[in-house]
Amino acid sequence: MKKLLFACTIFVLVSCKTLNSGTTLTPPPPTTPVVVEPSPQETPLRPKNIILMIGDGMGLTQISAGLYSNGMKLALEKFKHIGLHKCYADNDLITDSAAAATSFACGIKTYNGAIGLDAQEKPVKTILEYAEMKGLATGLVATSTIVHATPASFIAHQKVRSMYEEIAADFLNTEVDLFIGGGKKYFDRRVDKRNLLKELEEKGYQVASFLDEDLKEIQPNGKNFAYLTADSDPLPVAQGRDYLPHASKLSIDFLKDRSKEGFFLMIEGSQIDWGGHANDANYIITEMIDFDNSIAEVLKFAEEDGETLVIVTADHETGGFAIQKGSKPDSLVTAFTSDYHTADLIPVFAYGPGAEAFMGIYENTAIFDKMFAAFGWK
Ligand SMILES: [Zn+2]
User: Fold this and answer.
1) How many A from CA of 273 to the centre of ligand 1?
2) Is 97 marked active-site?
3) What does the pLDDT read at residue 36?
4) What does each C-alpha distance from 239 to 234, 235, 236, 286, 374 come to in angstroms?
């Protein structure tokens, strides 16, 4: 229809020009300019919700080892938009989890050990704090303590990552709707004698821990929700920890109808990194598969929902992990070059509205920028 209109307009213009050359005629009526509207497919879609999933220490070899050991498949394969980020810290080519998570959370490079602070030790607002400010529901889930570097960098502002009690106290300065992770002792057996679990209850939270009830048995009652999965570090999955896939689903069910503005949720598979530090391939593989099972839960929701952007990435690789000659899918011959982090580029997988923006190679700080833009914030 528009093409036809355009052709007619051209015809009228050409005809008038020919006729006008020798005769006097009344000028043609002004033509309406043809406006080409983008087709619905070209309209950029904005997600209502963002779920950022961080596999701590999850480089490409960790993913590969998980895939080979899991019958040659992972839920991660469903992602079609894939990029790489540059993970280095402000003061070191080899980042730690605090600087890296602060880059995701705040969009800045900072020094190793910094929690939500810039290189000059100034607090920087996190994506979770922006989400709270804009009326979204928010959540944090981890298989480490909830005050460990990665989750901490989304909610706390401290000079050193090991200030666990100070980081726990920062949870009280926010309106985070849900958090699930270990580290109960930093909330209720503190040097300053504060009982933060009680304070959370007084603030209107439903608070529970592994001592009260299994996470799988518990029913959120509509209040903000805090669940402590261990007194300090949760167990490795190979030793019986089994809550991450369930916690991922529970968090989504909890957050999805909580605000009409949407939600922001960060889920960390924390212990892939610990397998790397321990140079323990089986530890890495079991944690990788557990994280992938959680990714499957998240994707199940995102596929049905259609308004959720899922981003899966890591803060850095750990161990200089390699799969060597003589390997078979069910018996990998592995080696490590380090018991610490390495400076490898790190894969980023994105699914859902806005996922295209995560293709290419970019700084780790761009993960924040891209999430911020995807939400349509200015
Ligand atoms: Zn580490």
Assistant:
1) 5
2) yes
3) 52
4) 10, 6, 5, 10, 39
